Amino acid sequence: MGKFKEFLNSGHAPTLFASFLYFDFCFAVWVLNGAMAPFISDTFNLTPSQKGLMISVPIMAGALMRFPLGILAQYIGRKNAALVEMSLIFCAMIYGYLMVNTFHDVLAMGVLLGIAGASFGVALSLGSGWFPAKHKGLAMGIAGAGNSGTVLAVLFAPPLAIKYGWQTVYGFAAIAMLLPIFVMIIFAKEPPDREHQTLKQHMACLLEKDGWVFNLIYIVTFGGFIGLASFLPTFFYDRFGVSKVEAGQLTMLAAVMGSGVRIIGGHVSDKIGGIRTLMGVFFVIIAVMIFLGNQDSLVITTIGFMLCFAALGAGNGALFQLVPLRWPTTTAIAGSMIGEIGALGGSIIPMAMGMSMEYHGTYEFGFYIFSALGVFALTVLYISQKSWVKSWVAEGGRARVKSVQDNPKTIYETDHLDPSAYFKNVIYPVGDSELAEKTSEVTAQLIKMSGAKLNLIYVEEKWYASEENVAQGDSWEQIRGNWIKEGERVLSLEVERFKKLGVTNIHAEVRTGEMAKEIVRCAKDKNAQLIILASHKRSPLGELLMGHRTFNVFKYAECPILRVVR
Fold first, then answer.
1. Which of 53, 266, 288, 535 is the most buried (most CB within 10 A)?
2. How far apart are CA 322 and CA 266, in angstroms?
3. Which tens digits make up the pLDDT trace of 388-411?
């Protein structure tokens, strides 16, 4: 309990709760047609292929809307994007209650239900945005557990459809959406890990090989979850002849496992790594789906689906433990992209199952196709992870912190920033280093990820070095004043540079004295948690190759130092 409290205190718990509720209710709306499929099928006498199409349309529409919503969130903020989306969902549900009367209306309504399916990337990024990298897996797991909305849909929609008619369920959904809207308005707070980038920069992740590897994995883990969760009411109803309400209840058992274990998957991935977790869950998914292909027992089939959904949920949590490590400043857009492709994969499952039944009289081939896809994704993951652990993630898929111990304090030495910890005050000495531009970019990224205050200092040491050797006089005071003004000019330019990089919480000051001592003194005065320096590679020859100023900062500083090197 103490560790969980520590986890909550490391971020913004109200925003995490609001994100969970937002995703939960959106997910429930997204799968409404799947939950009510037996009722809609009987109303319009649908064939197996038509059932698969009806269930697939909301999934496909939601998938296609995820990426645009992720882009919108980068410009208006994730909280505002969520509120816009939920308002549209409310209007769509009113339309469904008043206007849906034919099968074609149901298909059109499926497109509108897709609006709710767009919430994924925004919900996870909003919920986890306040948390440091070492806790992002758990934070994303909690926010992502909103896919338990499937449970709400399959548990409440069938009984309501029996009592009031399935069209009326859309009206109840409209009323229900008011709750997450109000919670989002009152409790959620936009996280600081937001970077303004051009549309071209956002779209760049579509062209990266890693992005498509993540897409493939997510087609299996999330595509399998949403596709099977939407189709299971129809599967249980047609395959085993259970009632419509019982079909929903059996689906609920599987969906609960998937949603609950997603949190565990994220937490376990924080501990042992997302790659290791994904490897394990893929073996489970493949084995269970092959086993269920020709299973005739309702009890065994239900237990098998519960196990399969648990593995799918853990896989979802594991994958999104890796996303913010791979794309730390564009998590929302990367999450939306991956979520979009994964959900598109989910839309294939109901259609494949329906066509398998219509043309072969069995669902067996649908199960085997999904198993084969799992084998392919596992193979690609195994090959790709070899390069991942050499670049952006630690062994097994844990958050990477590249550090060495320099008695008695930890010195961080990096070519690429890992924003794994939050800081309140950061010291950045401004100078004429050839690495200044690179160091500024790294510093800006950390400040935006952590929400820390950036303290820029310019140390004027020419006067300090010469004051013992010169006579006091107006001319020397004027020279000293000019040196100070030069420092102020340099600081002014640096402040403008950081503002263009999206940093606004800045304090700038000129100090006089010995460079290293003033940097250390400033860090102590500001109670800084980090000093950032541009430097040569660390050398066993110490001061000779490192530079005496940097060497002395390392020697006397009481807080960690992040050195940006070539």
1. 266
2. 9
3. 887 788 888 887 654 433 333 433
Amino acid code (one letter) for 527: N
CATH, residue 547: 3.40.50.620
Q: Residue 104, CB half-sphere, CA atoms under 13 Å: how many?
A: 0
Can you tell me the distance from the alpha carbon of 41 to that of 59, in angstroms, rounded to the nearest whole number?
18
Rounded to whole angstroms, how far apart are CA atoms 184 and 190?
10
Residue range(s) defining the domain that contains residue 478: 401-564
pLDDT band at 539, cuts 50/70/90?
A: very low
* Strands lying side by side in the sheet with 561-564: 403-406, 409-414, 561-564, 530-534, 425-429, 453-460, 506-512
The CATH code of the domain that includes 309 is: 1.20.1250.20
Domain co-membership, 379 together with 405: no
Retrieve residue 203's tokens. 């779209």
> What is the full DSSP assignment across 14-80?
HHHHHHHHHHHHHHHHHTHHHHTHHHHHHHHT--HHHHHHHHHHHHHHHHHHHHHHHHHHHHH-HHH
Domain count of the chain?
A: 2
Q: What is the pTM of this model?
A: 0.67
- Is 241 part of a structural domain of the chain? yes
Using the 3D structure, point to which of 394, 423, 448 is the last residue of a domain. Answer: 394
In the numeric block, the tokens 């994100």 are attached to 19
User: Are 387 and 530 in the same domain?
Assistant: no
Parallel, antiparallel, or unpaired for β 409-414 and 403-406?
A: antiparallel
Question: What is d(CA 314, CA 564) in angstroms, rounded to the nearest whole number?
Answer: 36
- Mean pLDDT for 116-137 is 83
3-state secondary structure of 543: helix
